[in-house]
């Protein structure tokens, strides 16, 4: 797979009719509201997740355990009437545990492909940084290419497929940090964080007894989501906007040991498109870009040679670039 | 601007020096207005207005400069409005922009403000604005604007010709000093540095004198040369300076053929400035006296270039040359009469003029009273008392005129070597030197008559001259003369001549004899070489045909330079204008006025074009307006963020939304362009007022 295939036009199914922007926006609002019945108070992150979904990307959540990452993914899957699967990454997890494997069927004497957990509309890769690199890359290649190849045979993944991977932010000594090239494949990186006291009271009230995630009713279907993604892909990106994105990305490269990659720029523009849809527009304005830049760019930036990828310094690099680059420049 | 407002009482050497220089500079321009008010009105008014302006300047210290500037402009505007509202109805009726521009140009090309009929109101109207602004800025230690305002005022009077060379030089030095000391003050200079600037200024003042003394030096001295002719910078036709020694040349000026001789009148003057006479107003008509019973036809042939048309009073018809009529009822040629050019003039007079005055009452028309009873404020007092004393036994205007005439003839000594001019010529002549020639006698008589409430005017011209044939009179420079006309109701102007006739004739003959001995007879010479008796206040060297402090009322023009100079300003004037214009442009640029002025126009003028460009233009102007009102948009800020941050109004947001569509979607049409225009207009209206 080449870098070129990540451009917005290349990997999209042109046979899908786009929804009107207003309907796409309504769909997003329905889903957001629906997920909100399960995940209390995290509207921003839910929106971020939907932006990543519409932008045909994947979401990396870095969090302490137990803040509702799984609930988010499951509620999202339930809301769009899609399939949900979960992979718990452990140090002994093998690539085929993710992708699936060919199993010899003694009845007809052939190898049958048994799909792994990656075959789902919403795939939760839990604690992805606890598995060895080889296993990690199996998932990441799957989500990049939209298919898995087992024993020389290609198997198409469902469309849409939306991977929500989580990283354990504690216990950093027993993890395999994701290499730069793989982190780069996540469109956005977000943090749910702890709820505040009021939210927590609400959470406690909701989940004792019967967990609401069991009751999530679909408010959209997978087909509509595909259409909404097509709508997003067709949102206008004018030359000044593209220039703004390019200058932002270039600025991070000026200011950090490792700046955002070209793939980061593409991701940023796509997310800006999705953000425009959320705002009911069929064209991108710089505000969309500015809104998306921190969550899209930060995890791709390493401020200094020894610094952590996407650490606090990286955040400063991005916000400084946003302060410096003039979105209204001619 | 967060600039601190300095304490008024702060005293450093540099600040004291700077404020002193501001005072001198301000005074050098206000001096002209002081003089004007002195001539035509009550000086207490001037002091009151000036005091009020300075108080306002002191009170306005806390106000921001732009508001103070607005106050200054408003003061000036209100003053000029007051001036226009008190102007004669005939003037206001014909008031157009072109007329105003024309008047301004006329003023700025050497039309002394004293020639304005209603100059008192004008002078009082223009005092407050420069005084207020100059001192407002000076108190706030913003010396550059202070100098700018005061310098503009001084420059104005330089251009009108009312500011003398000395006053202008002093003003320029004060301006330089203000800036120098002000800069030193701002940087906390030491006493030595302040003194250095003082020395430099002194050098600037002294250098011209020294340079002119040096061999081959051509610098103009000031002081010595300044005393004689400074009052007559403008054309002598409208203005006559007094004092100083007089030049009586034996050169033949013109020849008259007429049935009988008379006083060949050249000009009449109504306004006495203390140091000279000015004719106010622009133009008048030729009119004879009521009940005229004698007509005199004259043919006058110029024997050297003349810029006047001598004729017996009152001329009623002229032909032979192009001419215009002054407000005093005398004809003057358009351009200059060439040698041997001649014209014919018919005059009417009342043979029984003095008798008519004898019988006349004191029921003067308002117009006459307004114009011909003016005496400078500072001349009054003792002169009034003297006039009252001399006319103690006279009850009618005629008796008063006779009494004053006789008293002058009897008690004053005739001399062509009169003492040098000063600002109170009549007072000096009457009370101090008691020596003078026709101009002094005539001026003194007019002033005394006016003090007694009798309208009178100062008249220049020539005595009949020498009869050189049957009905032919040859008139020379030595025949130039000044006399008095007294107004008699229902009759008109009646001539009086207070100069002792025999003394005058003796002096003239002596002059001619003297000239014959040294300079030979030059009856028709073009030369203006003067006799040895006097200083040569030469008329040939002045490019603007100026007659200086002598009594020669006919302007003699030397060379071709003067002939063309009567309509177009001379090259020197143009150069001066260019320098002034450059200076103003530089100051304006320095203060950012040009850029701001351009921006102001730019914000208002949104060109047509394709809708995208219109919306983009409107948006750009919106950002400019908002930046001035609130703050500029920060570099990394999107327009939405900016509008949120300044809590912008609905029109701004509407315009921003239109711009987003135009810029990021590119599908705006003429409707959107019109909407953008409307939004911009609404925004301007919102933010137009501070």
List the helices and strands and how they pair.
The complex is a heterodimer of chains A (330) and B (690).
Chain A: H1 21-36, H2 43-54, E1 59-63, H3 69-79, E2 84-88, H4 95-99, E3 100-105, E4 110-115, E5 122-126, H5 133-145, E6 147-150, E7 153-156, E8 162-168, H6 180-183, E9 188-190, H7 197-207, H8 222-233, H9 239-255, H10 262-278, H11 286-297, H12 312-324
Parallel strand pairs in A: 1-8, 1-9, 2-5, 5-8
Antiparallel strand pairs in A: 3-4, 6-7
Helix pairs in contact in A: 1-2, 1-3, 1-8, 2-10, 8-10, 9-10, 9-12, 10-11, 11-12
Chain B: H1 13-40, H2 43-59, H3 65-86, H4 89-93, H5 97-108, H6 119-126, H7 128-139, H8 143-160, H9 165-186, H10 191-213, E1 239-241, E2 252-258, E3 264-269, E4 271-272, E5 276-278, E6 294-302, E7 315-319, E8 323-325, E9 331-333, E10 342-349, H11 353-359, H12 366-372, H13 382-390, H14 397-411, E11 413-414, H15 425-433, E12 435-436, H16 438-451, E13 456-462, E14 466-469, E15 472-476, E16 480-488, E17 492-496, H17 501-519, H18 559-564, H19 571-590, H20 593-604, H21 611-629, H22 639-645, H23 650-664, H24 670-688
Parallel strand pairs in B: 11-12
Antiparallel strand pairs in B: 1-5, 2-6, 2-15, 3-13, 4-5, 6-10, 7-10, 8-9, 13-16, 14-15, 16-17
What's the count of strands of chain A? 9
Described by its quaternary structure, the protein is heterodimer
Please state the average pLDDT score of chain B.
75
Shape of chain A: globular
Number of domains of chain B: 4
* Strand order, sheet with most strands of chain B: 7-10-6-2-15-14
Instruction: Name the average pLDDT of chain A.
Output: 84
Count of discrete alpha- or pi-helical segments spanning 4 or more residues of chain B: 24
CATH architecture designation of the largest domain in chain A: 3-Layer(aba) Sandwich
Low-pLDDT parts of chain B are 1-5, 212-237, 518-567
CATH T-level fold name of the largest domain in chain A? Rossmann fold
In CATH terms, the superfamily of the largest domain in chain A is P-loop containing nucleotide triphosphate hydrolases
SS-derived structural category of chain B = alpha+beta
Q: Give me the side-by-side strand order of the main sheet of chain A.
A: 2-5-8-1-9
The biggest chain-chain interface is: A-B, 18 and 15 residues
Strand content of chain A: 5-15%
Domain Transglutaminase-like (chain B): 430-500
Protein name (chain B): Transglutaminase-like domain-containing protein
Biased composition (Low complexity) (chain B): 528-558
Keywords (chain B): Membrane, Transmembrane, Transmembrane helix
